[in-house]
Design brief:
By secondary structure, this protein is an alpha/beta fold. The chain contains 13 helices and 8 strands. Strand 4, helix 10 and strand 5 form a beta-alpha-beta unit. It is elongated and about 65 Å long.
């Protein structure tokens, strides 16, 4: 059984540990499991129920009424909330977390399509998918999600991003060029796919190299393409030699590098403004606008 700590349940549901303890005493509701040392933890099914309960409470349902509902009734009410035109991104993100845990592709597609109808494709990725990935990153970062759950939701999002990008026109010959790649040892491709979609949607011509691109290949590729900028994601820890290698590479290439991911991996001041850290899709969009108004 996959288990979740109280802190993880707080982060994923929006329900405080204090409220959980009160409900346990007052309503005998979602009784946690306990370790031999009396540490409380929750199961997959309990987490799913609490995510849904949190959505109902934030939409004016009273806990005294919710605890009397059957699971099917809770599920139906939550579905109506997240699919209505004025549904908030916060509730949609929580609902997508349930889709991940349940591995429910149909429900994922319903929420995804409804959000697109309300807000358009670009905002769907900027305001729903990216925050969702950050949200469940609390879970993945502690290795508490099954690999199957992570792969399931990642591949659904990956498929949607590739299809959305393919539907966009190629940048014309006068469009600015952006080179996108992941270096050796990096395999977190969703962030790179999202950047590729955003740049293409903004009219840039992109060259997508994908994962595990050897650094020496970048020298020949940039000499051939002469892009206005490069973009990469950096998630995996690196040794002390990496920063030296990257500095030498950027000095040789002479093209600015934009990067996102783990902000602690590099000190951008060490690269004399050759590398710029971007902490969100909005920051990426603004930077592209500044590079090519």
């Amino acid at each position: 059984m996959i288990t979740y700590s109280v802190a993880q349940v707080e982060a994923l549901t929006g329900i405080s540990a204090h409220s959980l303890r009160i409900w346990e005493r007052r309503f005998d509701f979602v009784e946690p499991f306990r370790t031999d040392t009396n540490i409380r933890y929750y199961s997959d099914d309990q987490l799913k129920k609490l995510i849904n309960v949190g959505i109902l409470l934030r939409n004016d349902h009273k806990i005294s009424k919710v605890v009397a509902m059957k699971d099917a009734e809770i599920h139906d009410l939550v579905s109506k909330i997240v699919l209505q035109p004025n549904s908030s991104s916060e509730e949609d993100i929580k609902a997508l977390a349930v889709c991940m845990i349940e591995m429910n592709e149909l429900k994922f597609i319903e929420i995804y399509n409804a959000y697109i109808q309300r807000h358009g494709l670009l905002k769907t990725y900027v305001s729903l998918i990216y925050p969702f990935l950050n949200h469940v990153g609390v879970l993945w970062g502690t290795n508490k999600a099954m690999p199957a759950q992570e792969h399931f939701i990642s591949n659904l999002i990956r498929q949607k991003l590739i299809a959305a990008t393919d539907a966009l026109p190629l940048g014309d010959k006068d469009a600015p060029d952006l080179l996108l790649f992941l270096l050796d040892g990096e395999d977190h491709e969703i962030g790179l796919l999202l950047a590729n979609y955003i740049a293409r949607e903004m009219g840039w011509r992109t060259y997508y190299l994908g994962q595990d691109v050897p650094s020496d290949n970048l020298i020949s590729v940039t000499a051939q393409l002469k892009p206005l900028a490069m973009f990469t994601m950096m998630i995996s820890p690196r040794n002390a030699k990496f920063e030296i290698m990257l500095g030498e590479l950027l000095e040789t290439i002479g093209i600015p590098l934009l990067y996102s991911g783990n902000p602690t991996l590099l000190d951008p001041t060490a690269f004399e403004k050759k590398a710029t850290y971007l902490n969100s899709p909005e920051a990426f969009i603004d930077h592209l606008k500044n590079l090519h108004p």
